[in-house]
Fold this protein.
Amino acid sequence: MLKWCIEEGIDERFKHPSGFVALREKVQFICEGVGGCRIGEVCGGGESHGILANNLRFVEDPMGTEALTRSIVEFKLEHSKTGYSRYLDMAAVTATSGIRVADTIMAYCKAAGFKMITSVQAGVRVITPDFWVVRVSLLGLNEQGVNCLLNVLSKDKSISVFRHLETTKTEARRRYAASGSESQTKKYINVASGDSTDASLDEVVARLCALGYTAQKLPGPLLLATTGGNRQVPKLLPYSTSTASAPTKEILTKAWQAGFVGGVSQDPDLDLAPGAMPKWSTHSLRRLGDTVARRYRHVTGVTADQIDIYFGWQEKILLLAMQVHYASLSIRERMDTAKITGMM
Protein backbone atom coordinates (compact mmCIF):
# COMPACT_ATOMS: atom_id res chain seq x y z
CA MET A 1 0.00 0.00 0.00
CA LEU A 2 2.68 2.52 1.01
CA LYS A 3 4.77 1.68 -2.05
CA TRP A 4 1.77 2.31 -4.35
CA CYS A 5 1.09 5.64 -2.66
CA ILE A 6 4.67 6.82 -3.14
CA GLU A 7 5.26 5.48 -6.65
CA GLU A 8 1.82 6.04 -8.19
CA GLY A 9 -0.94 7.47 -6.02
CA ILE A 10 0.70 10.72 -4.95
CA ASP A 11 1.83 11.57 -8.49
CA GLU A 12 -1.71 10.95 -9.75
CA ARG A 13 -3.20 13.18 -7.04
CA PHE A 14 -0.71 16.07 -7.35
CA LYS A 15 0.01 16.86 -10.99
CA HIS A 16 1.40 20.37 -10.54
CA PRO A 17 4.06 21.13 -13.18
CA SER A 18 6.85 21.85 -10.69
CA GLY A 19 6.48 18.46 -8.99
CA PHE A 20 7.28 20.05 -5.63
CA VAL A 21 3.93 19.30 -4.00
CA ALA A 22 4.11 15.61 -4.94
CA LEU A 23 7.64 15.33 -3.53
CA ARG A 24 6.57 16.99 -0.29
CA GLU A 25 3.66 14.58 0.04
CA LYS A 26 5.95 11.59 -0.52
CA VAL A 27 8.25 12.78 2.26
CA GLN A 28 5.26 13.14 4.57
CA PHE A 29 4.07 9.58 3.79
CA ILE A 30 7.59 8.18 4.32
CA CYS A 31 8.01 10.02 7.63
CA GLU A 32 4.75 8.58 8.91
CA GLY A 33 4.79 5.11 7.35
CA VAL A 34 8.49 4.24 7.65
CA GLY A 35 9.64 6.80 10.23
CA GLY A 36 6.70 6.31 12.56
CA CYS A 37 6.00 10.05 12.98
CA ARG A 38 2.68 11.45 14.06
CA ILE A 39 1.43 13.82 11.34
CA GLY A 40 1.90 16.69 13.79
CA GLU A 41 5.55 15.68 14.16
CA VAL A 42 6.10 15.91 10.40
CA CYS A 43 4.23 19.13 9.61
CA GLY A 44 4.39 22.53 11.30
CA GLY A 45 8.16 22.74 11.77
CA GLY A 46 9.08 25.79 13.82
CA GLU A 47 5.63 26.52 15.19
CA SER A 48 4.57 23.22 16.76
CA HIS A 49 6.23 19.78 16.78
CA GLY A 50 7.21 19.47 13.10
CA ILE A 51 10.61 18.46 11.77
CA LEU A 52 13.15 21.19 11.09
CA ALA A 53 15.20 20.89 7.92
CA ASN A 54 18.52 20.98 9.77
CA ASN A 55 17.46 17.99 11.88
CA LEU A 56 17.49 15.75 8.81
CA ARG A 57 20.57 13.64 8.09
CA PHE A 58 21.60 11.30 5.31
CA VAL A 59 24.16 8.97 6.89
CA GLU A 60 26.35 6.38 5.18
CA ASP A 61 28.88 4.00 6.72
CA PRO A 62 31.44 3.11 4.03
CA MET A 63 32.50 0.10 6.10
CA GLY A 64 28.97 -1.11 6.79
CA THR A 65 28.00 -4.63 5.79
CA GLU A 66 24.28 -4.79 6.64
CA ALA A 67 22.03 -3.64 3.82
CA LEU A 68 19.40 -2.09 6.10
CA THR A 69 21.76 -0.06 8.26
CA ARG A 70 24.82 0.94 6.22
CA SER A 71 22.97 3.82 4.52
CA ILE A 72 20.14 5.50 6.41
CA VAL A 73 18.07 8.65 6.76
CA GLU A 74 17.76 10.13 10.24
CA PHE A 75 15.39 12.71 11.71
CA LYS A 76 15.66 14.22 15.14
CA LEU A 77 12.32 15.21 16.61
CA GLU A 78 12.99 18.04 19.04
CA HIS A 79 9.74 17.35 20.87
CA SER A 80 6.36 15.73 20.34
CA LYS A 81 2.86 16.36 21.62
CA THR A 82 3.88 14.60 24.82
CA GLY A 83 7.04 16.67 25.14
CA TYR A 84 9.86 14.20 24.51
CA SER A 85 12.50 14.14 21.78
CA ARG A 86 13.59 11.07 19.85
CA TYR A 87 15.55 10.00 16.77
CA LEU A 88 13.99 8.20 13.82
CA ASP A 89 16.34 6.26 11.57
CA MET A 90 15.12 4.70 8.32
CA ALA A 91 16.83 2.41 5.84
CA ALA A 92 17.82 4.19 2.62
CA VAL A 93 15.86 1.49 0.76
CA THR A 94 13.37 -0.74 2.58
CA ALA A 95 13.80 -4.48 2.20
CA THR A 96 10.36 -5.84 1.30
CA SER A 97 8.71 -3.10 -0.78
CA GLY A 98 11.92 -1.44 -1.97
CA ILE A 99 10.77 2.06 -0.97
CA ARG A 100 13.57 4.46 -1.90
CA VAL A 101 13.54 6.56 1.23
CA ALA A 102 16.84 8.40 0.79
CA ASP A 103 16.43 9.17 -2.92
CA THR A 104 12.91 10.51 -2.40
CA ILE A 105 13.81 12.77 0.51
CA MET A 106 16.97 14.03 -1.22
CA ALA A 107 14.92 14.89 -4.32
CA TYR A 108 12.60 16.95 -2.11
CA CYS A 109 15.55 18.78 -0.53
CA LYS A 110 16.85 19.73 -3.97
CA ALA A 111 13.40 20.91 -5.08
CA ALA A 112 13.11 23.00 -1.89
CA GLY A 113 16.44 24.65 -2.70
CA PHE A 114 18.18 23.59 0.52
CA LYS A 115 21.96 23.91 0.57
CA MET A 116 23.42 20.53 1.58
CA ILE A 117 26.61 20.23 3.62
CA THR A 118 28.76 17.12 4.06
CA SER A 119 30.81 16.15 7.11
CA VAL A 120 32.32 13.06 8.71
CA GLN A 121 31.33 11.95 12.21
CA ALA A 122 32.69 8.83 13.89
CA GLY A 123 33.84 7.57 10.49
CA VAL A 124 30.45 7.87 8.78
CA ARG A 125 29.52 10.39 6.10
CA VAL A 126 26.76 12.80 7.09
CA ILE A 127 24.86 15.05 4.67
CA THR A 128 22.40 17.56 6.11
CA PRO A 129 20.44 20.61 4.92
CA ASP A 130 21.66 24.05 5.99
CA PHE A 131 18.44 26.07 5.89
CA TRP A 132 17.75 29.17 7.97
CA VAL A 133 14.99 31.78 7.96
CA VAL A 134 14.47 35.26 9.33
CA ARG A 135 11.39 35.17 11.55
CA VAL A 136 9.53 38.33 12.54
CA SER A 137 6.96 38.24 15.34
CA LEU A 138 3.53 39.76 14.80
CA LEU A 139 2.65 39.65 18.48
CA GLY A 140 1.90 43.08 19.88
CA LEU A 141 1.32 44.64 16.47
CA ASN A 142 -2.02 46.15 15.50
CA GLU A 143 -3.21 46.38 11.91
CA GLN A 144 -1.35 49.63 11.36
CA GLY A 145 1.78 48.07 12.82
CA VAL A 146 1.56 45.13 10.40
CA ASN A 147 1.20 47.53 7.48
CA CYS A 148 4.21 49.51 8.70
CA LEU A 149 6.24 46.30 8.90
CA LEU A 150 5.29 45.37 5.34
CA ASN A 151 6.24 48.84 4.19
CA VAL A 152 9.64 48.43 5.83
CA LEU A 153 10.14 45.05 4.16
CA SER A 154 9.16 46.43 0.76
CA LYS A 155 12.06 48.88 1.02
CA ASP A 156 14.62 46.41 2.38
CA LYS A 157 17.66 45.74 0.20
CA SER A 158 17.77 41.98 0.84
CA ILE A 159 17.30 39.92 -2.33
CA SER A 160 15.60 37.13 -0.37
CA VAL A 161 13.17 39.54 1.31
CA PHE A 162 12.28 40.94 -2.12
CA ARG A 163 11.85 37.48 -3.65
CA HIS A 164 9.30 36.45 -1.02
CA LEU A 165 7.66 39.86 -0.52
CA GLU A 166 4.29 39.17 -2.15
CA THR A 167 3.83 35.96 -0.20
CA THR A 168 5.00 37.73 2.96
CA LYS A 169 2.32 40.40 2.52
CA THR A 170 -0.43 37.83 2.05
CA GLU A 171 0.68 35.63 4.95
CA ALA A 172 1.28 38.53 7.35
CA ARG A 173 -2.27 39.80 6.91
CA ARG A 174 -3.76 36.31 7.10
CA ARG A 175 -1.83 35.36 10.21
CA TYR A 176 -2.51 38.69 11.90
CA ALA A 177 -6.25 38.22 11.40
CA ALA A 178 -6.27 34.56 12.53
CA SER A 179 -8.09 33.67 15.72
CA GLY A 180 -8.59 30.54 17.76
CA SER A 181 -6.71 28.52 20.36
CA GLU A 182 -3.67 27.81 18.17
CA SER A 183 -3.46 31.17 16.40
CA GLN A 184 -0.93 32.63 18.86
CA THR A 185 1.77 30.15 17.80
CA LYS A 186 1.33 31.36 14.21
CA LYS A 187 1.68 35.07 14.89
CA TYR A 188 4.88 35.41 12.92
CA ILE A 189 6.18 35.43 9.36
CA ASN A 190 9.39 34.13 7.82
CA VAL A 191 10.59 36.88 5.49
CA ALA A 192 13.93 35.63 4.12
CA SER A 193 15.98 32.44 3.86
CA GLY A 194 19.53 31.28 3.27
CA ASP A 195 22.26 29.09 4.77
CA SER A 196 24.25 29.52 7.96
CA THR A 197 27.00 31.46 6.18
CA ASP A 198 24.62 33.97 4.59
CA ALA A 199 25.50 37.26 6.28
CA SER A 200 22.56 39.00 4.64
CA LEU A 201 20.18 37.17 7.00
CA ASP A 202 21.96 38.59 10.04
CA GLU A 203 21.83 42.02 8.44
CA VAL A 204 18.05 41.77 7.91
CA VAL A 205 17.63 40.76 11.57
CA ALA A 206 19.77 43.69 12.71
CA ARG A 207 17.85 46.22 10.59
CA LEU A 208 14.47 45.01 11.83
CA CYS A 209 15.55 44.87 15.48
CA ALA A 210 16.94 48.41 15.21
CA LEU A 211 13.43 49.53 14.20
CA GLY A 212 11.90 47.86 17.25
CA TYR A 213 10.65 44.61 15.68
CA THR A 214 11.28 41.19 17.19
CA ALA A 215 13.30 39.32 14.57
CA GLN A 216 15.46 36.20 14.78
CA LYS A 217 17.52 33.96 12.53
CA LEU A 218 16.23 30.42 13.13
CA PRO A 219 16.38 26.94 11.54
CA GLY A 220 13.67 26.61 8.88
CA PRO A 221 10.98 23.93 8.55
CA LEU A 222 11.57 20.77 6.53
CA LEU A 223 8.15 20.56 4.87
CA LEU A 224 7.30 23.90 3.28
CA ALA A 225 3.86 25.28 2.49
CA THR A 226 3.21 26.35 -1.10
CA THR A 227 1.48 29.16 -2.93
CA GLY A 228 -1.83 28.49 -4.69
CA GLY A 229 -2.55 28.05 -8.38
CA ASN A 230 -1.35 25.56 -10.97
CA ARG A 231 2.35 26.34 -10.52
CA GLN A 232 2.73 26.06 -6.78
CA VAL A 233 6.07 27.21 -5.39
CA PRO A 234 7.45 26.89 -1.84
CA LYS A 235 6.81 29.49 0.82
CA LEU A 236 9.08 29.99 3.82
CA LEU A 237 6.36 28.81 6.19
CA PRO A 238 5.68 25.23 7.33
CA TYR A 239 3.21 22.85 5.73
CA SER A 240 0.29 22.61 8.16
CA THR A 241 -1.25 19.46 9.63
CA SER A 242 -4.75 20.54 8.65
CA THR A 243 -3.74 20.94 5.01
CA ALA A 244 -2.02 17.54 4.92
CA SER A 245 -4.79 15.43 6.49
CA ALA A 246 -7.47 15.48 3.76
CA PRO A 247 -5.33 14.36 0.78
CA THR A 248 -3.68 11.70 2.95
CA LYS A 249 -7.00 9.93 3.55
CA GLU A 250 -7.96 10.32 -0.12
CA ILE A 251 -4.72 8.72 -1.32
CA LEU A 252 -4.98 5.87 1.21
CA THR A 253 -8.48 5.08 -0.04
CA LYS A 254 -7.24 4.90 -3.63
CA ALA A 255 -4.35 2.70 -2.55
CA TRP A 256 -6.82 0.30 -0.93
CA GLN A 257 -8.92 0.26 -4.10
CA ALA A 258 -5.84 -0.34 -6.24
CA GLY A 259 -5.15 -3.52 -4.26
CA PHE A 260 -8.37 -5.21 -5.40
CA VAL A 261 -8.22 -8.24 -7.70
CA GLY A 262 -11.51 -9.81 -8.74
CA GLY A 263 -13.38 -7.63 -6.29
CA VAL A 264 -11.29 -8.81 -3.33
CA SER A 265 -8.58 -6.81 -1.56
CA GLN A 266 -5.14 -8.42 -1.78
CA ASP A 267 -3.48 -6.05 0.68
CA PRO A 268 -1.89 -8.14 3.48
CA ASP A 269 -1.69 -5.13 5.78
CA LEU A 270 -5.46 -4.52 5.85
CA ASP A 271 -7.26 -7.22 7.80
CA LEU A 272 -10.85 -6.40 6.79
CA ALA A 273 -13.92 -8.59 6.51
CA PRO A 274 -15.30 -8.87 2.95
CA GLY A 275 -17.32 -5.77 2.11
CA ALA A 276 -15.94 -3.77 5.05
CA MET A 277 -14.60 -0.27 4.42
CA PRO A 278 -11.32 0.87 6.00
CA LYS A 279 -11.53 3.72 8.48
CA TRP A 280 -8.55 6.01 8.10
CA SER A 281 -7.23 8.16 10.93
CA THR A 282 -4.24 10.44 11.48
CA HIS A 283 -2.39 7.37 12.80
CA SER A 284 -3.10 5.02 9.86
CA LEU A 285 0.33 5.22 8.22
CA ARG A 286 2.04 5.11 11.60
CA ARG A 287 0.06 2.01 12.58
CA LEU A 288 1.12 0.40 9.29
CA GLY A 289 4.78 0.98 10.14
CA ASP A 290 4.24 -0.41 13.65
CA THR A 291 2.51 -3.52 12.27
CA VAL A 292 5.37 -4.25 9.90
CA ALA A 293 7.97 -3.65 12.63
CA ARG A 294 6.30 -6.19 14.93
CA ARG A 295 5.67 -8.69 12.12
CA TYR A 296 9.37 -8.92 11.29
CA ARG A 297 10.78 -8.92 14.82
CA HIS A 298 12.05 -12.48 14.29
CA VAL A 299 14.12 -11.20 11.33
CA THR A 300 15.39 -7.90 12.77
CA GLY A 301 15.85 -9.05 16.36
CA VAL A 302 14.33 -5.87 17.84
CA THR A 303 12.28 -5.91 21.03
CA ALA A 304 8.75 -4.69 21.69
CA ASP A 305 10.16 -1.92 23.92
CA GLN A 306 12.47 -0.75 21.13
CA ILE A 307 9.47 -0.49 18.81
CA ASP A 308 7.47 1.45 21.42
CA ILE A 309 10.35 3.90 21.90
CA TYR A 310 10.86 4.30 18.14
CA PHE A 311 7.20 5.07 17.46
CA GLY A 312 6.73 7.16 20.58
CA TRP A 313 4.03 4.93 22.03
CA GLN A 314 3.49 5.28 25.79
CA GLU A 315 6.03 8.10 25.97
CA LYS A 316 5.08 9.17 29.47
CA ILE A 317 5.52 5.63 30.79
CA LEU A 318 8.76 5.08 28.87
CA LEU A 319 10.25 8.51 29.58
CA LEU A 320 13.20 7.28 31.66
CA ALA A 321 13.91 4.44 29.23
CA MET A 322 13.85 6.87 26.31
CA GLN A 323 16.22 9.31 28.02
CA VAL A 324 18.70 6.54 28.81
CA HIS A 325 18.24 4.96 25.39
CA TYR A 326 19.04 8.04 23.31
CA ALA A 327 21.66 9.52 25.63
CA SER A 328 23.73 6.35 25.37
CA LEU A 329 23.47 5.82 21.59
CA SER A 330 26.28 6.86 19.28
CA ILE A 331 25.51 7.79 15.70
CA ARG A 332 26.51 4.29 14.56
CA GLU A 333 24.21 2.73 17.15
CA ARG A 334 21.36 4.99 16.05
CA MET A 335 21.94 3.83 12.48
CA ASP A 336 21.31 0.28 13.66
CA THR A 337 17.75 1.23 14.70
CA ALA A 338 16.88 1.65 11.01
CA LYS A 339 16.22 -2.09 10.96
CA ILE A 340 13.14 -1.54 13.17
CA THR A 341 11.08 -0.48 10.14
CA GLY A 342 13.57 -1.56 7.49
CA MET A 343 11.52 -4.57 6.45
CA MET A 344 8.70 -2.32 5.18
Q: What stands out?
A: DSSP finds 14 helices and twelve strands in the chain. The chain has a mean pLDDT of 88. The radius of gyration is 21 Å.
